[in-house]
Design a protein that fits this description.
The protein is an alpha+beta fold and 715 residues long. The chain folds into 5 domains: 4-71; 77-147 and 155-167, Beta-Lactamase, CATH 3.30.450; 203-303, Beta-Lactamase; 329-557, GAF domain (Beta-Lactamase); 561-712, Histidine kinase-like ATPase, C-terminal domain (Heat Shock Protein 90, 2-Layer Sandwich). β1 (81-86) and β2 form a beta hairpin. The radius of gyration is 64 Å and the shape is elongated. The structure holds adenosine-5'-diphosphate.
């Protein structure tokens, strides 16, 4: 295609040709005419071509403008900052992002040295950057831009030298990418790396990181200190001599297989690198890569020797405590043995003791001089010894107890320092524990347990203390028993005396009263009124005296012959007492009732009837003339006892007499007002004492009286 300039040249030539033809027209008109037509035609063709070309040109220009606008848009709105820099390092142009980065308008940037917009600390770097651009054609640097009113921020500055055509100098296009976020992430990474390092290095745990090829990659100080430098060496022939020895090889295998593992404590022998026995706890944690591979395994060893020591000490202490608890439990069981005859109690205690100590025999011995007597005996199986068997003390195990005056406890006799003692030849016990029994500071004998086989466990301080306490308890029981027996003996003697005395007193009394009666019968009519009165007084005195003696006799009889203790229904007791008092109740127009229910208690039935009879009898007797007696009997059951109450609406008792009325011959009234001997309540008190109970009174004169009796539930 012809260019526009060519076409215009050709059109000009044609026009000139037409003009020339016109000038020459007269000479060859026809020829000229033809040529003119031809020329005109060409002219038209050219004109047409020119127009077409014009149009094309126009279109091309339009396209160029569009492209140029697009490039401008790309330049301006790119998310990357663009700066055109000239050879004086001044900013020629900057796109919108670039302006935004610098926080300035184009007017404040254009023509200014780029250096002004760079943080001071990296201005030197900027110079170096452009020196490189100039010489090599491109450069890339990390710099800090300094925006207006904002703190500097990091960018990657990439510059390329632009093609020539910029006059004398050169220009370059610098792109700036904001890397604040990347920088922050890098910093965070760095910090976390520093932190990890610090933790890793300073950790008291021994840590090693091993890669997928079983090669140790990192070992912290504790690891090296614990297992030595050799443990950080790579395996040879697939084996880690140190890891194998410290039990880490299995941890590693598990870790490489993707499993976390926690090894129970391992015991590093004294010949280990640390030269002492240690307890170690091992862990392995696989580190998973993104594609679920195991690039590394973390091995951790924790020295738990101290913890283990404490654990062991604690276990020992717990066992000791448990045994102490058991000792106490058995002792309290022994202390709570039901009150009863001492021999039974002691036999039960021996039973409990030998079971508790897991030994087959138990005995209480009496030692007098060199005489050793078996007093109480308990055995798992029949043994030849019987109570009353006598030994020579020197041939018994207890000789050692007496010698040492303290507990002797030996779990395995033949291994003890006393293996050659004659007692072993005599009795052959393999395990023995014995303690001295003292009564009032004097050695009485021993309590001891033994077996023909060694004890299943060693005896400890707890067992020794158990024996001491048991011996004290046995001492107390024996002492109490001795006191009780002494007391019983002296009581029996006293009662015997009272019985005989009162019994013997009655015959002279009967003699007095029969002679007084005889006197009255024979000489009554011969005597004056005064003398007859005197005879009547003497007779009354003798009768009263006899009643006193009878009551005293009854008082001395209470508990004399041990009556059987049996369950007794108190309601029946009340009925029987009321039956005995029937006429008294009727005469007094009285009313006796049971309020609620009465319990069954353990006691001597006949004594309990006597007790209730005395109390109900008094309640009827000591009533007010204007108020017929009303007697209510009730009971309250408490956890440890039953309390029985006899309440009346009679004359009442003044507070000052509440304690004294239970004494023998204690009366508050003269016989002419209320009959009586003053022994009734003393008998009640004696019966209650026999039942290990207590009796007390509550009363208000003129309102009534309540007698309360407490009976222990175990008796
Ligand atoms: P007595 O033979 O005199 O009745 P007791 O020993 O039975 O002897 O009683 C002692 C004293 O207690 C009585 O003399 C009486 O004064 C007083 N007493 C006993 N029971 C009652 C009662 N229920 N109400 C008022 N006083 C009483």
């Amino acid at each position: 295609m012809k260019t526009k300039v060519q076409l215009e040249g050709e059109i000009g030539a044609l026009k000139r040709e037409v003009d020339a033809l016109r000038l020459r027209a007269p000479d060859g008109m026809a020829d000229s005419q033809r040529r003119m037509t031809e020329t005109l035609h060409n002219l038209q063709v050219h004109q047409e071509e020119l127009r077409a070309q014009n149009e094309e040109l126009h279109q091309a220009q339009g396209n160029i403008e569009k492209v140029s606008a697009r490039y401008r848009d790309l330049f301006e709105y790119s998310p990357v900052g663009y700066f055109i820099i000239d050879d004086k390092l001044a900013v020629v142009d900057a796109n919108i992002t670039g302006m935004g980065m610098l926080g300035r308008t184009k007017g404040r940037i254009a023509g200014k040295p780029f250096l002004l917009f760079i943080d001071k600390k990296c201005r030197y770097d900027l110079d170096a950057h452009y020196v490189t651009v100039r010489s090599v054609g491109r450069a890339s640097s990390e710099l800090w831009l300094l925006p207006d009113q904002r703190p500097p921020f990091p960018v990657i500055l990439e510059s390329v030298r632009l093609g020539d055509g910029w006059g004398d100098g050169w220009r370059c296009l610098s792109t700036a990418i904001d890397i604040t976020d990347r920088k922050r992430a890098e910093l965070a990474l760095q910090e976390s790396e520093t932190r990890f390092r610090a933790i890793f290095e300073q950790s008291p745990l021994a840590i090693q990181i091993v890669d997928a090829e079983s090669v140790p990659r990192m070992s912290n100080r504790s690891w090296v200190k614990l297992w030595g430098r050799a443990s950080t060496a790579p395996p040879t022939d697939g084996r880690h001599p140190v890891l194998d020895r410290i039990g880490a090889a299995s941890l590693l295998q598990e870790g490489l297989a993707g499993r976390s593992l926690e090894l129970p404590a391992i015991h590093v022998a004294a010949d280990g690198e640390r030269g002492e026995s240690r307890w170690m706890h091992g862990y392995a944690y696989p580190i998973r890569g993104q594609d679920d591979t195991i690039p590394e395994v973390v091995l951790v060893h924790e020295d738990i020797t101290e913890r283990k020591r404490i654990e062991l000490a604690l276990t020992e202490q717990t066992a000791l405590l448990r045994r102490q608890y058991e000792n106490l439990r058995v002792l309290s069981e022994i202390a709570a043995l039901p009150s009863g005859p001492a021999p039974q109690k002691l036999a039960d205690a021996l039973d409990l003791g030998r079971r508790h100590l897991a030994l087959s025999t138990g005995m209480i011995s009496r030692i007098e001089g060199n005489r050793f007597t078996v007093e109480h005996y308990s055995a798992a199986e029949d043994m030849a010894w019987a109570e009353g068997t006598v030994f020579d003390l020197a041939s018994t195990y207890c000789a050692l107890v007496i010698e040492q005056d303290d507990v002797v406890a030996i779990a395995h006799w033949t291994r003890s320092p006393y293996a050659d003692h004659p007692c072993y030849r005599a009795h052959g016990l393999e395990s023995y524990v014995g303690a001295p029994i003292r009564i009032r500071g004097k050695t009485y004998g021993t309590v001891n347990f033994g077996s023909a086989t060694p004890s299943p466990r060693d005896f400890d301080d707890g067992d020794r203390e158990f024996m001491r306490l048991l011996a004290r308890w046995i001492g107390a029981v024996l002492e109490e028993d001795a006191i009780r027996r002494d007391l019983a003996r002296s009581n029996a003697e006293l009662e015997q005396f009272a019985y005989i005395a009162s019994h013997d007193l009655r015959s002279p009394l009967r003699q007095v009263s029969s002679y007084v009666s005889l006197l009255d019968r024979r000489y009554g009519d011969k005597l004056d009124a005064d003398a007859r009165d005197f005879i009547a007084f003497a007779h009354d005195g003798a009768v009263r005296m006899d009643q006193l003696v009878v009551d005293l006799l009854e008082f001395s009889r209470v508990g004399r012959n041990a009556k059987p203790v049996e369950p007794v229904a108190l309601s029946e007791v009340v009925h029987e007492a009321c039956a005995n008092l029937h006429s008294n109740i009727i005469d007094a127009n009285g009313k006796v009732s049971i309020v609620g229910t009465l319990p069954v208690i353990n006691g001597a039935a006949s004594d309990l009837v006597r007790l209730l009879q005395n109390l109900i009898g008094n309640a009827i007797k000591y009533s007010l003339p204007e108020r017929p007696p009303v007697v209510n009997i009730s009971a309250v059951t408490r956890p440890m006892s039953n309390v029985l109450t006899v309440r009346d609406n009679g004359i009442g008792i003044e507070q000052i007499y509440h304690d004294t009325i239970f004494g023998v011959f204690k009366r508050l009234h003269t016989p002419d007002k209320y009959e009586g001997t003053g022994i009734g309540l003393a008998i009640c008190k004696k019966i209650i004492d026999q039942h290990n109970g207590r009796i007390w009174v509550e009363s208000k004169p003129g309102e009534g009286t309540a007698f309360h009796m407490e009976f222990p539930r175990s008796s």
